[in-house]
Design a protein that fits this description.
mainly alpha; 69% helix
């Protein structure tokens, strides 16, 4: 009799317990969906996360993230799923691997190329200002003697 009473009490109180955990789960799901959405790029807007974008595709992507979270996927599993479907570009911080080298290192290449161009231009301007050009061969002994003679004459004048 006592066992039947406890069993019926447990069955009657279970829906209330599930209702409370469902509310907590909804808040948790919303928070996780928001956190994951901030790490995924909108493929239409390209410079916004799907959490910040108002594009229709971003809304669909947010719903897909929520579905995956409700299905029990971890945050990393959700990101991996989205990466599989949309490519590395969907991640706000794509992984460094051969297919993303250009994405990661092109800013360095552009800055480095600009710096090299600037240095070469400055050297060229400096060479033009002194009347010499880069790559000129050294003066022959005869030319050096003439140059020294001219410099001595200018110094004595």
């Amino acid at each position: 009799m006592l066992r039947a009473l406890l069993l019926s009490f447990a069955l009657l109180s279970a829906p209330a317990a599930f209702a409370q955990s469902a509310e907590l789960d909804d808040a948790t799901v919303e928070q996780r969906t928001e956190d994951i959405s901030r790490t995924l790029r909108c493929v239409v807007c390209q410079n916004q996360s799907i959490a910040d974008s108002n594009a229709t595709l971003a809304e669909d992507m947010r719903r897909l993230v929520e579905v995956r979270v409700r299905a029990g996927d971890t945050d990393d599993e959700v990101r991996a799923y989205m990466q599989t479907n949309y490519g590395d570009f969907v991640l706000m911080s794509p992984p460094v691997k051969p297919t993303t080298y250009l994405l990661w290192f092109s800013p360095l290449l552009i800055v480095g190329g600009g710096l090299i161009w600037y240095v070469m231009s400055a050297r060229k301007r400096a060479a033009e200002a002194t009347g010499t050009e880069l790559g000129d061969e050294d003066l022959s002994a005869e030319d050096q003697a003439r140059l020294q003679k001219l410099m001595d004459e200018n110094a004595s004048s």
